[in-house]
Specification:
Layout lengths: L4 H9 L7 E6 L4 H16 L8 E6 L5 H10 L2 H4 L3 H10 E5 L9 H8 L11 E6 L6 H10 L13 E5 L7 H14 L5 E3 L7 H12 L12 E9 L8 H26 L8 H14 E2 L9 E6 L2 H5 L8 E8 L9 E6 L6 E8 L14 E7 L3 E9 L7 E9 H5 L6 H11 L8 H15 L9 E4 L7 H8 L9
Parallel strand pairs: 1-2, 1-4, 2-3, 4-5, 5-6, 7-11, 9-16
Antiparallel strand pairs: 7-12, 8-10, 9-10, 10-11, 12-13, 13-14, 14-15
Helix pairs in contact: 7-8, 8-15, 10-11, 10-15, 11-15
The structure holds NADP nicotinamide-adenine-dinucleotide phosphate.
The site of NADP nicotinamide-adenine-dinucleotide phosphate has 21 residues, from helix 2.
Amino acid sequence: MKKSLVEDTQKRLSGKQIAPTILTIFGATGDLSADYLLPALLRMEEHGMLPKSFRLVCVGRKELNAKSYFDFVLKKSTVLKKLPTKVKQSFLKRLTYYQGNFDDVASFTGLAKLLSDHDQPNKHVCYNRLYYFATSPQYFSGIAHILKNSGLLMSCKAHERKVRVLVEKPFGFNYKSASALNKLLKKFFEEEQIYRIDHYLGKETVQNLMVVRFANGIFEPLWNNKNIDHVEISVLENDTTAKRAEYYDQTGAIKDFVQNHILQMLSLITMNEPYNLTTEDIRNEKLKILKALQLPAGELRQSVIKGQYAGYKKEVKADSQTETFAALKVFINTPRWQGVPFYLRTGKALHKKVAEVTVHFKEPARCIFRNCTANVLTFRIQPDESVHLQINNKVPGFGVDIHQGDYGFGYKQAFMTELPGAYERLLLDFIEGDQRLFIRSDEIESSWKFIDSITENPEFKNLPVFSYKQKSAGPKEADEFIKKDLREWRTK
Ligand SMILES: NC(=O)c1ccc[n+]([C@@H]2O[C@H](COP(=O)([O-])OP(=O)(O)OC[C@H]3O[C@@H](n4cnc5c(N)ncnc54)[C@H](OP(=O)(O)O)[C@@H]3O)[C@@H](O)[C@H]2O)c1
């Protein structure tokens, strides 16, 4: 099936009245903006995904103008340089650069005027105002105050406008800081205006977790502790912490990847079917899982393995004990999942980059053949986005030997089109006001509560940090950890 992104976008946008919108990005000269946000917006321009009246204001400390800022972004990416000139020109027409320093609130007084110059209240044109907090979290509170005190949240006299804020990760460093940030944001905004991002939720294959589960009648009857032996979620990265070493050293693998990407995928693969596909129904079901997360009883070392790649201490220039690798065993205390272990694993500087969710079914209660093996359903989130089901088959011949075959569905082969990028999808949702793929305050607080039960446990800092070679599969202790339970990591 060949289906183009342009066609899909046109279908999505057709008939929709998208109000005139200005997106203001704070931290527009940072890596996130230059590497992900601007490229996503440019691809949206290329695919006709940006409403005609869409405008973009990029805020940074550097002295730049729209043209020099745009050149700065293009210089960072060879892919963007190759975009048709027409696309670049039409994008540049939407773009304004504004220079401001968060340490100097007065530098933002001109921003309100810049934004309101777009409004034409006499013609009932009042731009929706969207603000993207794409900076280090230390500035989130300052930006919220700037929005309030510099007249950026002002309503438009003639017409109602929507104001939304999108807050980058990390959203807090533990339960206390996350709930303090929620409290602060709620002083200025309603929950419906706050978009907490986890870009994994924008990935096609993560959204597909729900589709495979709830659009196929065959899975729901099997989706419980009677039929599922265990589940593995692995997010392996081959990059070192590199440019983000300083930030990473304060955070570590558990707070960086487990708290958000992995716990979000875990909740999607285990939650009950939402009553409807509405934002609140989905969030309510995810929340029930996040609240029910538990570590096995006993010492923390039985459920958590920490690792650090060789050379990391040199990178951060400190005798750091921060984990660049983590393996965990957790349970979900609900009737459906009693007794089913969930093995979670993530790490940096590993031998490959892959993200997978793998559901291991139980072996048949009785096997009349020589070697029945358990069925395995794997969701390959990235790369080679696909779904695979391992099924036993007869080997040709006169005997009844069994061979486990792979029934695969590959996104690229099936649809023969490029997949929409996660940031494109999430930015479009932000513009349209769709919060389904964003995280609610109580979800984020519950996931931090669970992470705190690990990282704020006094035993945590005394856990050994096992060294592993760069480009390896991680510390051997992580393999021994799962082998103790007579299982092994499927994602090698
Ligand atoms: N980079 C990634 O791959 C990535 C991925 C996912 C999430 N994130 C998250 O996204 C956020 C931003 O990350 P980043 O890597 O883009 O950070 P960054 O490269 O350090 O950029 C930070 C931005 O904030 C601006 N800034 C800093 N201090 C300022 C001040 N006093 N006044 C005005 N502007 C100021 C910087 O301007 P200057 O250019 O003038 O310094 C820059 O535009 C973080 O929360 C991060 O965790 C990043």
